Amino acid sequence: MAHFDTEYQRLEASYSDSPPGEENLLMHVPEGAKSQWHHIENLDLFFQRVYNLHQKNGFTCMLLGEIFELVQLLFVVGFTVFLANCVDYDILFANKFVNHTDSSKVTLPDAFLPVDVCSARIRDNAFVIFVLIISGVFWLHRLVKFIYNVCCYWEIRSFYINALKMTMSELPYATWQEVQARIVEIQKEHQICIHKKELTELDIYHRILRFKNYMVAMVNKSLLPVRFRPPILGDCVFYTRGLKYNFELIFFWGPGSLFENEWSLKPEYKRGGNRLELADRLASRILWIGIANLLLCPVILVWQILYAFFSYTEVIKREPGSLGARCWSLYGRCYLRHFNELDHELMSRLSKGYKAASKYMNCFLSPLLTVVAKNVAFFAGSLLAVLIALTIYDEDVLAVEHVLSSITLLGVCITVCRSFIPDKHMVFCPEQLLRVILAHIHYMPDHWQGNAHRYETRDQFSQLFQYKAVFI
Amino acid sequence: MAHFDTEYQRLEASYSDSPPGEENLLMHVPEGAKSQWHHIENLDLFFQRVYNLHQKNGFTCMLLGEIFELVQLLFVVGFTVFLANCVDYDILFANKFVNHTDSSKVTLPDAFLPVDVCSARIRDNAFVIFVLIISGVFWLHRLVKFIYNVCCYWEIRSFYINALKMTMSELPYATWQEVQARIVEIQKEHQICIHKKELTELDIYHRILRFKNYMVAMVNKSLLPVRFRPPILGDCVFYTRGLKYNFELIFFWGPGSLFENEWSLKPEYKRGGNRLELADRLASRILWIGIANLLLCPVILVWQILYAFFSYTEVIKREPGSLGARCWSLYGRCYLRHFNELDHELMSRLSKGYKAASKYMNCFLSPLLTVVAKNVAFFAGSLLAVLIALTIYDEDVLAVEHVLSSITLLGVCITVCRSFIPDKHMVFCPEQLLRVILAHIHYMPDHWQGNAHRYETRDQFSQLFQYKAVFI
Amino acid sequence: MAHFDTEYQRLEASYSDSPPGEENLLMHVPEGAKSQWHHIENLDLFFQRVYNLHQKNGFTCMLLGEIFELVQLLFVVGFTVFLANCVDYDILFANKFVNHTDSSKVTLPDAFLPVDVCSARIRDNAFVIFVLIISGVFWLHRLVKFIYNVCCYWEIRSFYINALKMTMSELPYATWQEVQARIVEIQKEHQICIHKKELTELDIYHRILRFKNYMVAMVNKSLLPVRFRPPILGDCVFYTRGLKYNFELIFFWGPGSLFENEWSLKPEYKRGGNRLELADRLASRILWIGIANLLLCPVILVWQILYAFFSYTEVIKREPGSLGARCWSLYGRCYLRHFNELDHELMSRLSKGYKAASKYMNCFLSPLLTVVAKNVAFFAGSLLAVLIALTIYDEDVLAVEHVLSSITLLGVCITVCRSFIPDKHMVFCPEQLLRVILAHIHYMPDHWQGNAHRYETRDQFSQLFQYKAVFI
Predict the structure, then answer these.
(1) How many helices (H) and strands (E) does chain B have?
(2) What residues in A contact C396, CB-CB < 8 Å?
(3) Distance between CA C250 and CA C285 in Å, rounded?
(4) Distance from A422 to chain C by nearest Cα, in Å?
(5) Is-contact C173 A453, C-beta < 8 A?
(6) Pick from A26, B288, C53, C66: most CB atoms within 10 A?
(7) Which of A95, A105, A386 sits opposite C83 (nearest CB)?
(8) For residue A404, how many other CB atoms are within 10 A of its CB?
């Protein structure tokens, strides 16, 4: 990992060229260049927003996306409450009969309880009311954030249109390089940055990636506690989106974090003297955040289960094989990131390596699992074969209870099994695949060389490239 | 497009070497070489048929294909009339009950009306009778054409067998180059062409592609009115199979067309003097053809809707994603065609570029559409998830009205949405893809260079490579 | 096929370096090297087992696989007998009604006959009893073989662990080269082979592949009667797993076979004198084996039909296109094998050529079949379109008898048809594909060169690469 060290030193050096604190100093600038975009105070955040708006493909898409997120939240809570309180499942499951005067068919609306019964049931249920209040508060919080965001990005939008001379409809078809080149041009004209006369691409990257670079450095130096050695599972990595959020909360923007504002460390953290005291303070803060996490845990868990159910049930039904798909883990995304690499550059690099990485991992299906999967698939397939044959002969069989469910479940079971059985005509050449992956991810420990077919290499690589199911 | 001009001049020059009119002049040929294939009068048509028979993989395949076409026509009309008049939908939809003495099950034949009721209903319906007469006339026309074709191609078949010494079963596995080489040999022996002693490959190409070359030239010179600028949609191209058929009717073989017979322009069109008068006559002909088109329009429209319904409903049900597939447009096929390029050569060239072209177009999913599609997929997926879960728990839910339809429709809806969401691991490199396409289609305006990621380039390319749905 | 001859001579020469009979002679070995693995008597079988255990990924996988095989056998017989005797199909097909006091739903257990009725039916059925006895005997035979195998491989396992110092969990991730290198090392230490001081890789290969090399030689020299010329079908190859098993029985290990034990020919076969007499004896043995085959034929046939039904019905339902998939034929696997090529090396070589071989064969869809398939797909698609439209409008249509079966069967029919219709955008370049295949299979007759698009080449290649359905 020698290249990380040198790169890190280069990075440090570049930061000390323009230390974060310097931003508050005012340079002498020509008077005539004043404009709306002259001397932007919080340039880090400004550039980050410019970058975000580009990545989100313009203002309308961003707005729409956020509105949909708000609606999704309402929908998930509302639909769950509705399902739990307002549906008469006895009618749906034909345990109770409906008296129709006109037709003998049961329709969906028959199964819905009348509005008054339904609202009475909700009103009587303290837990439902509690959930509704919690999610109402959370939703209002999101709404306020949304309105704030709209205001901020409206400004960015007008920066794009008036200063950079790009319409929102052009934005998705412009590369970031083009946008950046225009920003560099703009600096000459409007003097948006106050410390420097000329803005280079590196300056812009530094400002956008300030926190990300810190995170990359901490992951590379193994400063974050993400590796564990539980008794049975062996060396493993635990780095979820929740953990990442907490880290960012602690270090960068939570109350009492290490940073004074969005771009400079608090002065006390720069001096080496009171290190121990600061560490103590940080420890107590982490404890409090941990307790807060523990309290919010059930709510978050329920939310995640509901959201996953609504999002993925249909996918699993349609293509159960996707359960076996893999993606780059959050840890891998952090570990394989270069310093000063923007999100879209990292994603494009990892995407290029995705196919080879998938193939590489598929070379290593556990032989034991394969044997079991083959036989489970055979037994399930036998039962399914008989059911299918009976159904084709006379579809009244489907009217027998649980036959249809059995067919569905056996089908899913077989598909899952099949994803553990390697393709007979697969060519096994891990060494080559690993070399292709290396070309894109730019990282390989020496002991992987020549050992691509070993289990240890596979295990270490799987820390970077995990099952999508785990990711979810 | 400079290369088109020079190529066109070369083409013109080559035509004047053997002007179409010359074919009627008789050259001095040795007496001993006379045979059935000696001095073929209409050599253009003859070569076109030889080429067609090769492309259709022999006589049996061609015959079978045409018979099936006739049967399809009968089937579509007959089945539609049957569905409209002879089915009691109340029984199918279980709104009316059938009294069976032996069993309680409703069978399909129960829903069919008795023959006398059915024929009475047809006899009373004037519109049905009108449709039947129209399609009967059309079918007889096709039948006559079919019988004529059989006779013609029977001759070509014996030419293959007796002159070229190729059996019909060998034909699908012989390349056109091989067939052509034998024709060139045959000329030396049988003197099938009367103007020249030796026949070159270029001669054969010229004769087969005479009209096609004119069309290519007219499209390349933008002489045909296929480009429009409707108010909102911007620059677009309208060139359907119907329009193509009409153009050919007007120029090449309709009554009063520019050509005297299948190979030579009428003499009056060769003189520049009475150009205006001829243009007037052409304009009035086009008017009459337009009126005929307008009158036939409803019949053709109904036919096309019926045919599309029968052909594509099943495909859309099975893989709705194919709606989003693309293919080379008719305009593209004409525009990208070289002079003197046979159908199979063009198709092979375009097929080679197909994969890259598809990928290129997929790089440009509208980001707005993506956001909407993602969220519609989420909401539809949530409802589907609940229905699936209920179904697996107890399949009696399926007996509730519209639940099964909802599951089907939600599934289709989600699949359509998914086709608008780009793959997460897709690598975006339009520049490279466009270069691969170029290598096969041999055409790229200068302003595409370096602008492969721009919307304008994509728009212009999409004129050549359109949605299959539009094509249909 | 000149390379086969020279290779065969080299092989013969190498065998005469260490003639099979010599193994019984004891060489002088140092006294101190004695161990459990010192002077293994049947080294051929020993090495074969070492290789097998490596290929089966260790002892646990092998054990599990064999146990599952025994269970499958029990399951297939038991389940078939159960289906034939213990299910009341009238209840399943709703021809008879069940009286429930609590619910009106028919459940699966309702359709099962009570245990006493069921066992009485089995007891009364002589054929069922006969089948049960036959399969019981066969199963016991397999069980004994299994127990014997477990003992043998337990020894191999301890050889791996104690002598080669490899745990079973490491085994799947070690290449055969690594294992072999350790065996060569071991020889120096333990003197496992008694004739030679040093063991080379070639020695190990020879011992593992002794019989396989004989088979490869016999197939290459066309000594085995596997090619036939039935009246209509033309030149074809018949070489099934059953035939292969019989050949091995006759030549290698059956009672009265050519080999004295597992490594040396009987002495009488080595002398040229009594050739005719030996041929006579062999002929009579083959006759007896043929008669035994004939007697066992119905049992084997029923078993294979049952096994195929249970294994493949579900696959055909799920992806009917896989019926059109191809794989290397048994004959191809023998014909394309080099001398001294282990199974995994052959499979990896053939797997690399698989994709190109599939594509090559797909270039040659019969044009006649394509025309028929297109039209059958159209007619089936039309009916399906109407049924789907009706179903979406009102799903009560599904309750009509045979509608659901029709939808399923029409769907399967269309998918099968589609596998005969070539992809429109397929690029046809058989010459290149054949060259890619050649690079992996290392075999091409001279008359294929330049004739890759011919039917004869295709036919000959299809002998090596046949339909999977035929393989099954």
Answers:
(1) 19, 4
(2) 105
(3) 8
(4) 13
(5) yes
(6) C53
(7) A386
(8) 21
CA distance A381 to chain C (A): 6
Residue C328 pairs with which residues in a beta bridge? C465
Q: Do B425 and A351 touch (CB under 8 A)?
A: yes
Q: Residues with Cβ < 8 Å from C63, sequence gap 6 or more?
A: C150, C153
Q: Which residues of B touch A309 (CB under 8 A)?
A: 385, 389
Among residues B111, B33, B12, the alpha carbon closest in space to that of B339 is found at B12
Domain edges within chain B: 36-199, 322-470
d(CA A297, CA A398): 43
Q: Which of B64, B81, B314 is the best mutation test for C, with the most CBs of C within 10 A?
A: B314
Q: List the single residue in A71, A314, A403 with the smallest CB-CB distance to B381.
A: A314
For residue A113, give the amino acid letter. L
Tell me how close the Cα of A295 comes to any Cα of chain C, in angstroms: 43
Contacts of B355 in chain C (CB under 8 A): 425
One-letter amino acid for residue A12 of the chain: E
pTM to 2 decimal places: 0.75
- pLDDT tens for each residue of chain B, 472 residues long: 344 444 445 545 444 444 444 443 344 444 444 566 766 777 888 888 889 998 888 888 899 999 999 999 999 999 998 888 888 888 887 777 666 555 566 777 888 888 888 888 888 888 888 888 988 999 999 999 999 999 999 989 988 988 888 888 888 888 888 888 888 888 887 777 777 777 888 888 888 888 888 888 888 888 877 777 777 666 777 777 888 888 888 877 767 777 776 667 777 777 777 778 888 888 888 888 889 888 888 888 888 888 888 888 888 777 776 766 778 888 888 888 888 888 888 888 888 888 888 888 888 778 888 889 999 999 999 999 888 888 888 777 777 778 888 888 888 888 888 888 887 777 778 888 888 888 888 877 777 777 777 777 777 777 777 776 665 5
Beta strands in C290-337 (DSSP E): 326-328
Please indicate if any CB of chain A lies within 8 Å of the CB of C106. yes
**B409: contact with A, CB 8 A cutoff:** no
**Is there a contact between A361 and A433 (Cβ–Cβ < 8 Å)?**
no
Compute the Cα dihedral for B130, B133, B139, B145 and give only its sign.
negative
Contact partners for chain A, using 3 or more CB pairs closer than 8 A, are: B, C
From residue B210, alpha-carbon distances to A57, B203, B243, B336 in Å are 50, 10, 19, 17
Question: Cβ B313–C399 below 8 Å, yes or no?
Answer: no
- Show residues of chain C in contact with A392, CB under 8 Å: 405, 408-409
Residue B172 to residue B157: CA distance in whole angstroms: 13
Q: Of how many residues is chain A composed?
A: 472
CA B206 to chain centroid, in Å, comes to 23
C425–chain B Cβ distance below 8 A for any pair: yes
